[in-house]
């Protein structure tokens, strides 16, 4: 390889490195800063399939308080909070409060095994977020994450991590009637 070709190759490699660094910096600076919902935001619309095959959307809950609980069968904190979530739902559903437990994968068999493996009976509507579209729209990370939505469709609270029974009760009280 002659000197001119070697120098040209070095320039091309250097240019590619500079372009790669520029792309990384640009991507970082222009990245949508976590589409995470916050209290006061309008809740992003969604449409999901439930465990029993029904289609549900955010519009179905207009005029009601709504607790969206994002969970997974592999999530131990999800397993621990699920019975309290169900018990509080039973207590508050006559006060215009709904719960939708959103599983981040569409695996009905795993979900059935999950619920049958719990000590307490859990009676919650479950929907599948197959492609994590709803979780992405709400900026969900980690699991469990719970989003509390008021009757007007606004986010009232976002709770990351496991909740105890009292916390769940307080959230449900905040959107009841």
UniProtKB/TrEMBL annotation:
Annotated compartments: Cell envelope
A single GO cellular-component term from the record reads: cell envelope
Domain of life of the native organism: Bacteria
Asked if the keyword Membrane belongs to this entry, the reply reads yes
Molecular function in Gene Ontology: antioxidant activity; oxidoreductase activity
The UniProt entry, under InterPro entries, shows: AhpC/TSA (IPR000866), Thioredoxin-like_sf (IPR036249), Thioredoxin_CS (IPR017937), Thioredoxin_domain (IPR013766), Thioredoxin_ResA/DsbE_sf (IPR050553)
Presence of keyword Disulfide bond: yes
Recite the UniProt keywords alphabetically. Answer: Cytochrome c-type biogenesis, Disulfide bond, Membrane, Redox-active center, Signal-anchor, Transmembrane, Transmembrane helix
Q: Which residues form a coiled coil?
A: none
Which residue ranges run through the membrane?
A: 12-29
Q: What is this protein called?
A: Thiol-disulfide oxidoreductase ResA
Q: What species is this protein from? A: Macrococcus hajekii
What gene is it encoded by? Answer: resA
